[in-house]
Amino acid sequence: MVKRKLDAGPVDVDVSIDVDYLKKQFDRFRDEFSGMRDKLSGTATEALDELSAYFDKNKFQAGVSAMGSEFDQLAGKLKGSSKDAVHRIEREVGERPIAGLAIAFGIGLLAAQFFRRP
Known about the structure:
This protein is mainly α. It is built from 3 helices and 2 strands; from the N terminus they run E-E-H-H-H.
């Protein structure tokens, strides 16, 4: 323990510093920091390895082409089902025009209520 007397103007201050305690605390801090650095660098390395495996050219390209073909199939189904729905609605409105007009009016009122500002 080091004791020093500081001249702080009209008031003298005794300052005692425990150098051994400070050294121990600094060493403990250095050890903890080193452990955290090792843990973080290991985690970063694992994450980079996983990304590299994910973006492996063969697997990535195969996944993209499979998704593209699935998207094309879904788009085709959507086009077909939307055309069927339009034809069915046209047929129903053609058979009952007043009911179609009433339904369109009701949908318009609901949309107006939904989008109305408070």
